[in-house]
Amino acid sequence: MPVKVGDTAPDFNLPAQNGSTVSLKDFRGKKAVVLYFYPKDDTPGCTTESCAFRDQYEVFKTADAEVIGVSADSSESHQRFAAKHQLPFTLLSDKGDQVRKLYGATAAFGLFPGRVTYVIDQEGVVRYVFDSMFNFKGHVEESLKTLQQLAAK
């Protein structure tokens, strides 16, 4: 069952590009999280999407949200990808796609890992899900719009 709006976001522990382990529960009560699943480091669409998050990262920080990218690539691959494109946020290695499957962000067109973004509030509740393989910048725009709506409440 895919995670949907109103669900409590499933917790996880995954290795980051800096060698640390990140748990979703670490952000509970502190920050909203924009969790985006993407297919592969350094591919054209994933680079466009990640750089769009990078370019708006300060806006996300101002909205009291943390951006976290997830793919099945290794931590070393994430480290190279983040350095090459000056990505200021965390990238997590989901070997075997266990967390991707937990969230239901699985294969697009039955071939590629899906490109799905979840906006999770400070209480750990999913407030928005954006699923689009080709609207790379839409993931950023829709996430920011959702965070602005949450702040207005």
From TrEMBL:
Gene Ontology terms: cellular component? cytoplasm; thylakoid
The source's domain of life comes to Bacteria
Subunit text: Monomer.
So where's the catalytic machinery, residue-wise? C46 (cysteine sulfenic acid (-soh) intermediate)
**Domain Thioredoxin: residue ranges:** 3-152
What is one GO biological process annotated to this record?
cell redox homeostasis
Coarsely, its chief localization is: other
Q: Which organism is it from?
A: Komarekiella delphini-convector SJRDD-AB1
Q: What is the recorded name of this protein?
A: thioredoxin-dependent peroxiredoxin
Catalytic activity line of the entry: a hydroperoxide + [thioredoxin]-dithiol = an alcohol + [thioredoxin]-disulfide + H2O
Does this UniProt record's set of keywords contain Transit peptide?
yes
Q: What does this protein do?
A: Thiol-specific peroxidase that catalyzes the reduction of hydrogen peroxide and organic hydroperoxides to water and alcohols, respectively. Plays a role in cell protection against oxidative stress by detoxifying peroxides and as sensor of hydrogen peroxide-mediated signaling events.
Family named by the database record:
Belongs to the peroxiredoxin family. BCP/PrxQ subfamily.
